[in-house]
Amino acid sequence: MYQCCLSCPLGTLTSEFHLTSDVLIELIPCQNHTVEVVEGVSEDVKCAPLLFKDDFLSEQYFGENQPASIMTEQIHFGEGMHRRAFRTKLVGGMQPTFTAGHPCVLKVHNVVSQGTKKNEDLIHKNYNLAAEECYVQNTAREYIKAYTSVAKTTEEFGEVPEIIPIFLVHRPSNDIPYATLEEELMGDFVKYSVKDGKEINLTRRDSEAGQKCCAFQHWVYHNTEGNLLVTDMQGVGMKLTDVGIATPKKGYKGFKGNCATSFIDQFKALHQCNKFCELLGLKSIQPSLSKPKRTATAPKPKPQPQAKKKPFVFNLKSKS
Ligand SMILES: Nc1ncnc2c1ncn2[C@@H]1O[C@H](COP(=O)(O)OP(=O)(O)O)[C@@H](O)[C@H]1O
Ligand SMILES: [Mg+2]
Ligand SMILES: [Zn+2]
């Protein structure tokens, strides 16, 4: 299916044309919009946001299903450890969250990539995996909202990273009926190291976003008394997606993460505080090295004034 841009009055041109330059020229009549070629499959879906009550860790529920039409490319463009990512365009619905034509990403878990073939257990698994992604990412989003309101009180902090929301998608006409939907992030997609926030790729570039992600991890770790770690920070610049959460095995205040508890120990051992941790008054997680013993002749050091900065304690129950 080829179409001019979505706001063009010509609308969708279902066509048997092959994409020769002639066809492209024929598709140019719209003067206001550039011609866009979308090859994909249209389907009607229902999308549900994850909503929270006062206690966002334990009181989470899916909101009303919103009808939407999407057109999804048949070949995935991204692949991670667990899921394949397909470019999709919102043809209608989901307003005002997205405008028509908004570039989005539909993610399908690999466990069910062969289809569910109407098998109840597989459908269940498919639902649970998609729902879990929504719980994890949207919960991390609530934490980063709280972090943002604290960071904003320190002028020098500057821009704060955002974790984008994801929606649960029901695709009644598809053999893999559950997936997630989110906006497409444009630009260099990178993962940030838990240790120092550097990009995890060959360039190992240092970035403000990466450092602010690490400070965010430290802030959440501190405010949950070491019980919850937002991990796997990745995305484009200040916009993040596909983060993970690690908690103790039994969970934390009714919430269970999707990453191994050992991620928390790893963070504790590796995290290096940066200037953004300092701006928030966070103290180093590693135990301080034991002081060298003074010799009998060495002069007694003068008592140093105590550092005034207190770590911020944010009441995570008060939603921003
Ligand atoms: N919102 C997005 N915008 C642009 N590219 C994305 C987006 N989400 C994921 N990708 C790309 O798709 C890949 C796989 O998606 P991801 O969510 O990381 O899957 P997994 O859960 O398997 O790690 C990513 O590594 C990235 O290259
Ligand atoms: Mg990933
Ligand atoms: Zn730190």
UniProtKB/TrEMBL annotation:
Top-level taxon in the UniProt lineage: Eukaryota
GO molecular function, one term: protein serine/threonine kinase activity
The keyword Kinase is assigned to this record: yes
The keyword RNA-binding belongs to this UniProt entry's keyword annotation: no
InterPro entries documented for this protein: a-kinase_dom, Kinase-like_dom_sf
Domain Alpha-type protein kinase: 53-285
Keywords: Disulfide bond, Immunoglobulin domain, Kinase, Serine/threonine-protein kinase, Transferase
PANTHER family (alphabetical): ALPHA-PROTEIN KINASE 2 (PTHR47091:SF2), ALPHA-PROTEIN KINASE 2-RELATED (PTHR47091)
Protein name: Alpha-type protein kinase domain-containing protein
Originating species: Albula goreensis
